[in-house]
Fold:
Amino acid sequence: MAKSGAKSGAKSGKLARPYRVTDGRRFRLSSIDPGDTRGFDSKRRARERLERDIEILGELQEKLYAQNQWALLLIFQAMDAAGKDSTIKHVMSGVNPQGCQVYSFKAPSPEELDHDFLWRSTYRLPERGRIGIFNRSYYEEVLVVRVHPELLARQRLPAELMTRDIWRERFEDINAFERYLARNGVVVRKFFLHVSREEQRKRFLERLDEPEKNWKFSLDDVRERRHWDEYMAAYEDAIRHTSSPHAPWYVVPADHKWFTRLVVVSAILDALSSLNLAFPSVEPDRMKELEAARVALANEAAPAAAQPAARRRGSA
Ligand code: ATP
Ligand code: MG
Structure:
């Protein structure tokens, strides 16, 4: 089973390809339908496939960890209630928690605002062998900050640097940063969970109607919803300017959570199965040491196993 990981991972990865953007110049958000469930008419079949893919992901992650060379950075961006949290929870359910780090980026603290905008992300990057998840990310700097210019004012940039080119410059800086990561063995995959405005409305209503979901409801989220079109324009522009073969965006239909999860796992399998992951092989000298250790342990086990019987005889 373990040997088949890369092969079946590559096969599963195909499901995500129609949603992958590697060159954004002609990208239009309207080309992706949030309600799409391509080829999956039954939830049951999707659930079976998700279970299998999550198992393959677990196998590939073990190799990633053991090989300790590559790191995988997964970035999740979305409007509220698009399902970031539950996607992360489901997709990573088969992964050893020791090999995984999740960080949720909130509005920057005063200390973070005292630095350049990428500063707070750099020391949360995953180590080699790990999967790092950014629940929101430095992309907020060209999304929420673009929609609310007062947030940019709080960053206290020198006036001569706050020109109308600032968003283009930020895209350039993000592209340079992601190229740098790619060249250092950090594989970057970015997900925009594309939910429709109507589905968001329904999910907010559910949060109000169901007592166990009340805690999730936030008036701020409803306020942000009023800026829907501005957000969509900002997302489209960000995807157009920051998609690349080494750090592609996946624009994932998000009106059906089960389909979102399937596409996200597929994209991760596609990334991991392209890395030639393998358990480190053991040198001949080291093999001899292992064999000697095995013999020593086997010989030690025999008297220890006999002990309880001897004790019983002694006490009789
Ligand atoms: P959930 O609501 O599911 O718990 P969330 O990611 O929406 O998850 P919140 O605490 O509600 O978490 O929101 C975090 C807020 O922080 C978002 O409104 C986001 O836009 C904001 N934020 C994140 N990064 C930045 C940034 N660089 N500048 C300004 N605001 C930011
Ligand atoms: Mg929120």
Remarks:
- The radius of gyration is 24 Å.
- The pocket of magnesium ion (ligand 2) is lined by residues 80, 218, 221 (CB under 6 Å).
- Residues 2-273 form a domain with the Rossmann fold fold (CATH 3.40.50.300).
